Amino acid sequence: MAAPEPDPRPGPTSGPTSDSEPGTGPDTDADAGSDSDAPPGPEPLTVPSMSAGPDFGLRPWEMSDLPLVREAAQDPYIPLITTIPARYSDKAAEAFVRRQWDRAATGHGYPFAIVRSRDRRPVGAIGLWLRDLPEGRASIGYWMVASGRGQGVTRAALRTVTHWALHDLRVPRLQLFIEPWNTASAHIAEDVGFRREGLLRGWQQVGDERRDMAVYGLLNSDGPVDGRAVTED
After folding, report:
1. CB 9: neighbour CB atoms within 10 A?
2. Which residues touch 118 (CB under 8 Å, ≥6 apart)?
């Protein structure tokens, strides 16, 4: 699993495992000036549906995906690095799905559910996050529930989003953040074309501690991705 970017939400105490809805809390910008003085915000994004090979697909989150949230909540690791609720309830799961919709609506990124083609069952999630796009880079995060592992799902999803981001969206640089112990996720990233670039000490809060993250990068100007030129038409 590659660590997802934390959900954008207000307040200094907000963090990657908070379950509060975006936009809640005190209005701290009430005296910051008129709307005409503020720079325009990101444009809303439309999350597309895409094939990830013959066996899997990517699509926007749906409220019917609550069983996926339930399974992810039971995983010992996923709630530590995402906003999946550690204690499942329908209310918390619905709030999680709405947060994914909000992230696209506010222009912060493209959240996808990963779906198995043969039975349309969702088995994981992947997101392309655009917070740093003005600086020419974007990040990808993904996770997979136990029932979806060992089937090539993660590799197919990462390859699809990577090629789409570099080829169609023309993002100059993509990056992933992976804990050093997670060799399976590292091998998948390297298979798709990402290169390990270094170790970021204490980079991310995971549960009750700050942990190191290895950073992996891929440039639009690098070599082929999945046997094809990155910028081919």
Report:
1. 17
2. 55
Contacts of 48 (CB under 8 A, 6+ apart): 58, 110
Per-residue pLDDT tens digits for 141-180: 999 998 888 888 999 999 999 999 999 999 999 999 999 9
Residue whose entry in the numeric block shows the structure tokens 């501690």:
209
Predicted TM-score (pTM) of this structure: 0.79
Contacts of 98 (CB under 8 A, 6+ apart): 21
Helix ranges restricted to H, the chain = 66-73, 78-81, 90-105, 153-163, 183-192
| Collapsed DSSP state (helix, strand, coil) of residue 209 | strand
The torsion angles phi and psi of 14, rounded to 5 degrees, stand at -70, 150
> Under a CB-based contact definition with an 8 Å cutoff, are residues 154 and 116 in contact?
no
The neighbouring-strand residues paired with 140 are 128
- Distance separating alpha carbons of residues 230 and 224, to the nearest angstrom: 5
DSSP alpha helix (H) spans, 124-182: 153-163
Number of helices and strands in the chain (H, E): 5, 8
